[in-house]
Specification:
Strand content: 15-25%
Distance between the termini: 50 Å
CATH class of the largest domain: Alpha Beta
Mean pLDDT: 91
Shape: globular
Number of strands: 23
Structural class: alpha/beta
Radius of gyration: 22 Å
Largest sheet: 8 strands, mixed
Length: 468
């Protein structure tokens, strides 16, 4: 494992995670508990994450960019035994943990000093949760997907059963450790004994610098990041890459062509998935031009179906175990036959290849993140010029969807610009939830019975206006 100038072997991670497990046990962590990790991408997260699972508890990472109010809401819901925080985020974490009367462990340089590196007694089994990942829903009420040891291992190991041209030189991981995908790519590398090269930011230069430094063979990036890499020209070599992978949104052939030119001889796939199921479909390199716009076929062990309403359903042993303390949300997402209702509308051709055509639910999917419109609306309504607002996702080839705010202003007020609105939201919401498009409207469409915003109609109006 590498991050910048730091390197750790698998043996190092194993020994340090044993120490972390003893340290967490001393802090009162027991099997079945949850441990929050709050910090940036840092190798300490490996000690905390694997140390937590060795105690029989589940890791519950939170986004270090959360505002204090977002973090408090998330951690109150997660109800951890302890909050473990990187020194960089100590002040905000102390305020939140103090308000919730939760013990705080700070990963200073000496936090493992004196702790044994012998394994702790094994606890639990493969069906117990090893991680709890926060995910947004259309209602804005917090949800956290429980991932079992079994499902996490299968997600990591089944990656090798897919077509591809994996190299042995390791993979660069663009995702942070508050995101399920960050742990997925790390654990895939661990499963096959391949190096994982971490970066602090999903920045084009930092990613390619890591590729060149370590001669990495694999890089996954969302289309928006690949576009920034392509726009950056050839300042970095990148010739070691065998796998140039992407997904989370529709990938057009122009980007595929550009990637083939920039990284000749590389193999590309387009992946579709979610926190709840992992990889739900994959379009292999050989099918990129035969099935343009498709997200491909379900990977091994995952079944797919499209119901009568056009919604994509998925099921398999990689599926999550339900939402933490939310039986209502679990029942709404997973039916009696074990199908996970993705909320995505899809079609399947005669060969079974899936194409995502839209969203059934109101949640916005932008760069692989789920965003609840009602949460964004509540924050925007605190702006003094805003009388009413409706938030929808607009289709975008790089981001999947863009967060769009349709605003009715107060009498005499001027609709805020994107920059003004994002500045206003900077202390209320993390940046991925900020609108990238702002439109002024005279009124919002509402349902007659309940007065709720008719988001599908609003979205259609905005898309039509922007294309005219």
């Amino acid at each position: 494992m590498t991050l910048g100038d730091e390197e750790r072997s698998f043996a190092d991670v194993d020994a340090r995670s044993n120490q972390a497990a003893h340290r967490l046990r001393a802090a009162g962590v027991e099997p079945g508990d949850r441990v929050v990790w709050w910090g940036p991408t840092d190798l300490t997260a490996l000690d905390v994450g694997y140390g937590t699972t060795k105690t029989g508890a589940a890791l519950a990472p939170v986004n270090p960019a959360f505002t204090e109010s977002e973090a408090r809401t998330a951690i109150e819901y997660l109800a951890p035994r302890v909050v473990v925080v990187h020194p960089e985020d100590f002040e905000v974490a102390r305020a939140v943990a103090g308000a919730l009367d939760l013990p705080l462990v700070v990963t200073t340089d000496d936090w493992l000093q004196g702790a044994s590196d012998l394994p702790v007694p094994r606890a639990g089994d493969g069906e117990d949760p090893c991680a709890v990942f926060l995910t947004s829903g259309s209602t804005g009420v917090a949800k956290a997907a429980l991932l079992s040891h079994r499902a996490a291992w299968l997600r990591a190991s089944l990656r090798e059963a897919e077509d591809g041209s994996p190299g042995a030189a390791g993979e660069v991981v663009m995702f942070g450790f508050f995101h399920m995908a960050g742990w997925y790519f790390l654990e895939h590398a661990w499963t096959v004994g391949r190096a994982a090269h971490l970066v602090r930011r999903a920045d084009a230069d930092e990613l390619l610098a890591a590729v060149d430094r370590w001669h990495a063979s694999t890089l996954y990036a969302i289309p928006a990041v690949w576009q920034r890499i392509l726009d950056g020209g050839a300042r970095f070599d990148g010739s070691s890459l065998c796998e140039v992978l992407t997904g989370t949104s529709r990938v057009d052939l122009a980007m595929v062509d550009a990637l083939k030119v920039r990284f000749p001889g590389s193999w590309t796939s387009v992946a579709y998935g979610s926190t709840e199921i992992g990889r739900g479909a994959v379009l292999a390199d050989r099918d990129l031009y035969a099935k343009p716009g498709s997200v491909g076929l379900p990977p091994p062990a995952v079944d797919a179906a499209v119901d009568a309403g056009g919604e994509l359903l998925l099921r398999g042993p990689t599926m999550f175990s339900g939402y933490l303390d939310r039986p209502d949300a679990t029942a709404a997402a997973v039916d009696a036959d074990g199908w996970f209702h993705t909320g995505d509308l899809a079609t399947a051709d005669g060969d079974g290849y899936l194409t995502i055509t839209g969203r059934r639910s109101e949640g916005i999917r932008s760069a692989g993140e789920w965003i609840a419109p009602v949460e964004v609306e509540a924050a925007i309504l605190t702006h003094p010029a805003v009388a009413e607002v409706g938030v929808v996702g607009l289709p975008d080839p790089q981001w999947g969807e863009l967060v769009c705010a349709a605003i009715v202003v107060k009498p005499g007020a001027i609709v805020p610009t994107v920059e003004e609105l994002r500045a206003h939201l900077s202390t209320r919401l993390v940046a991925p939830k900020h609108p990238r498009v702002v439109v002024a409207v005279e009124r919002l469409p509402h349902t007659d019975a309940t007065g709720q915003i008719r988001r599908a109609a609003l979205r259609a109006e905005i898309v039509a206006a922007r294309s005219s």
